[in-house]
Amino acid sequence: MPTSADLLSDLQPALVWRHFAHFCRIPRQSKQEAALRGHLLQWAEARGLAGQVDAAGNLIIRKPASPGAESAPGVVLQAHLDMVCQQNAGTGHDFSRDPIRPVLREGWLIAEDTTLGADNGIGAALILAALEDSELTHGPLEALFTVDEEAGMGGAQGLAPGLLKGSLMLNLDTEEWGEFYLGCAGGMDVNVDRPGRAAGMPAGWEAWRITLDGLRGGHSGVDIHEERGNAIKLLVRVLRGLQDSLPLRLASLEGGSARNALPREARAVVALPAGSGERLSALLATWETKLKRELLGVDEGLRLAAGPGEASGLLEAGEQAVWLGSLHAAPHGVRRRSLSVPGVVETSNNLGMVALGPDGGHCNFMVRSLIDSGSQALADEIVSLFSLSGTAALKSGHYPGWAPNPASPLLALCQRVFQREFGGASKVQVIHAGLECGIIGSRYPGMDIVSFGPTIRGAHAPGERVEVASVGKAWHLLRAILAEAASPGH
Q: Is pLDDT at 98 greater than 90 in this prediction?
């Protein structure tokens, strides 16, 4: 079977794609970036570049300025090493050891059954290409490769003040070519935990496994406004509806696998009196038709199915009522759209993961907002909801938003270079997704930050893809911006 290196060897720019091939080959789940970081550190040292790993596990590689550009302002190039690990059911991919296997299709590089990791592997590959390119004109460069971005921004949170010397920063973690990002949402997590009281299986009952899948999923910030289905919320709704017609008892409920990905699949094991299978199948068929109609044009691929299951115990009836009632009432999706930045979501929430069993359960909510008080208020609502049943819900991992600075000199430089190199105007955007820029900016007040990147679609979901031509354009733009920043009196 051809490897990713074989597939990417003919793509241009070769420097960038060669590095991305390594990102496809080396596993890099959040909190498990050590192998990739070690590879990059060895790569840097072999080229005489100074490398450093900080206390949080971030990697910093420094490259001296081009001759004559020593007095130019230092530029920090920033991306994160980890990726969201999502796969379609039955794929059997092991993200801890198996390489990503992309394919080329109509100008896009795509991973068909898993995430590709273009978020943010392409950005990191662009940075490595800049470090390697001997013909590039630039001032002092610092490459900052952060860890644990997708699971809580732990690397950026642990970045120490004073470590970086550059006054300008280019973040390469956005997903729409031709746009410069100047602000993003902040947010936090709400983690809910509740111990359980198990009950036994009634005599003469049998277990059934109910599966809801076929949804698109996606990025819980970038795609939240599209009203795609949330498998957890939908399956909870189905279970509550089934209770009206069947004496259903819940043994387990699982859904989602990443806090910042819209849940595509959810599964429940339930107990029913023997002989209820035909009635269950008929009810699920009715629910599938109803939900597909509601999600028409957005997520009509939804599927509901039931088959024989196994259950050694059940949630006690009161616990079942608490969990299904609370998850049904819990918020998900867009809470408020911005009035000051038209077309942008201001505050949202993703119910991203749930795991319930007879002995208790856990679920996670990821709250985002352009306004810190907005995320605090929505998180407090979730905490209050669960407190009504005496359930512990704790806020954690708060990270600040990145406040836009329309007067940014770096933005003006980037726009000028884009106009000159591509003959058209660029766009300036504020993104609802979380970037590390706000955290890094809080550690380094006064640092001028702009973000850009190639076109990526479907980040955080299987089928993630990157437009090959836009990667070449992003590389051309990065080289031109660095040369402009290094020129006297730019």
A: yes
